[in-house]
Amino acid sequence: MSGGKVPQVDTSFTASDRLGAWKARWGINRMNYLVPAGLYAIGEPGSDAPVIVTANYKMTYDLLRRELAGRSVWLLVLETFGINVWCAAGKGSFGTEELVQRIAKSALSGVVSHRRLILPILGAPGVAAHEVKKRTGFSVAYATARASDLPEYLDNGEVTTAAMRQLSFNWYERLVLIPVEIVLVLKAVSLTAAAVYLAAVLLHGESAAATALVAYLGAVFTGIAAAPLLLPLLPGKSFAVKGALAGIIYCVALYALGGGADWSLPVTVASFLALPAISAFYTLNFTGCTTYTSRSGVKKEMRLGIPVMGSALIAALILVLAGRLI
Prior knowledge:
Elements: E1 8-9, H1 15-25, E2 38-42, E3 51-55, H2 58-67, E4 73-78, H3 85-91, H4 96-105, E5 116-119, H5 129-136, E6 139-142, H6 150-155, H7 171-175, H8 178-204, H9 206-229, H10 239-257, H11 265-285, H12 295-325
Parallel strand pairs: 1-2, 3-4, 3-5, 5-6
Antiparallel strand pairs: 2-4
C-alpha cells in the first residue's frame, strides 16, 4: 500500500496496561500517559475497512482497542497531547485542523479506497465535518458516545441508535473520578490545612486546632467525594448548592459528634458558614468531570457561587476573631 507500513495493535490487556490505568486514575504520570499519534491497524484491515478516529490518551486508546478485539479496522489516532476525546474537543486539539493534518501525514488516501471517517460523538464540538470534507474529501460520521457501543454500530451497518447517543453517569463512574480529583488538590489542601491548624493553635490551643483541622479536611472530603457520590440524591441543579447542602449535613454531624455543645456561639456560626462553603467550592469544581454541564453553565455558576462562598469564609473569619476578643 502507498501509505507504507502501519503498526499493528495488540487488543489484549496486560498487567502493565492495568497498572498504567490505575496510576492515571491517581494522577501519577497522567500527562505522559499517551500513545504516538498516527495510523494503526487492528486485525488485518483491507482498503475497504472502516477508519475509526480517536485521541492519543492511552486510557481512551486502550478502551477502544479492547472493544475492537477480533475485528479488522484502521485506527487513526490524533495528537491530543494525552487528553481524552471530550476534553480535547473542547480545547481544540481533537479538532478540524489536527484531523486534516493527520489524514495527510498518515497518507490515509492511499491506504483506504473509501472516504469515510468514524468519529466519537463526544469529539463533535471540535470538528467541523464540512470543512474536513472540503479539504480532504473524507466525510465524517459521528458514531457513538461510548466505545462499548461501537461493535454494535459496526455490525448494524454503521447506524447510530438513540441509546448510542446517551451517556450515563452512575455511582461507579463518579467514584473512579475521585482519586485524581484528590491528587489535584492535595498540595493546596495540605498547605491550607497547615495554616488552619497553626492559626487555631495560636487562637485557641492544640485541642481546638485538632478539631479545626479535622473539620476542614472533612469539609474538603465532603466536597470532593461525598457530594459527587450522592449527586442525584442532593436537591437542586446547581453543583455549588448540592455541595453546600452536603456541607451542612456534614457540619450537623460534626457538631453532634464532635462536642459542638461546648463550642462558643461565634465558632458555631463560623463553622456553619465556612464548612459548607468549602464543600460547595470543591463540588463546584467537580462539574468539569460530569456529563451534563456546559462551559457557559459552569461560568454562570461560578459568577454566582464564588462570591457567596468567599463572603461566607470572610464572615466566618471575622466571627472567629471577634469571638476571641470577647
